[in-house]
Amino acid sequence: MTGERASLRAPWSPEQVENLNEFQRAGGMHPFTCGGEHESHRDLVATEGGWVCPDACGYTQDWAHWFMAEPEKWPRLRFPRREAPAGEGRSE
Fold it and tell me: Dihedral angle at the C-alpha atoms of 82, 35, 68, 48, nearest 10 degrees?
């Protein structure tokens, strides 16, 4: 898809944050992960200001695929559901 619906740029509403974090856990696609150096990958956490690394390494991302904020548009689940890290989904 092209045009304005190709990506969703932060800032995001509280409802979008909730949906984006649920999408990360749902397992329908590989999650967005931190680009910083860690011993293992870190799933990003959505906040109203954009994605952040839960390890507070400073990595951020300001976009998501548009459908990630619309649960009725999510692809079928193909991977096991992931558990949320402690404190996930809190707005900054």
Answer: 100
Q: b/e per residue, 52-63, with b = 16+ CB within 10 A?
A: bbeeeeebebee
How many separate domains does the chain show? 1
Token pair for 57: 């390494």
Q: Is residue 84 part of a domain?
A: no
DSSP label at residue 7: E
Is position 90 within any domain? Answer: no
Full domain range(s) for residue 31: 3-73
Q: Which two tokens stand for residue 54?
A: 């839960």
In contact, 69 and 20? CB cutoff 8 Å: yes
**Residue 87, pLDDT above cutoff 60:** no
> Does position 49 have pLDDT exceeding 60, yes or no?
yes
pLDDT score of 52 more than 50: yes
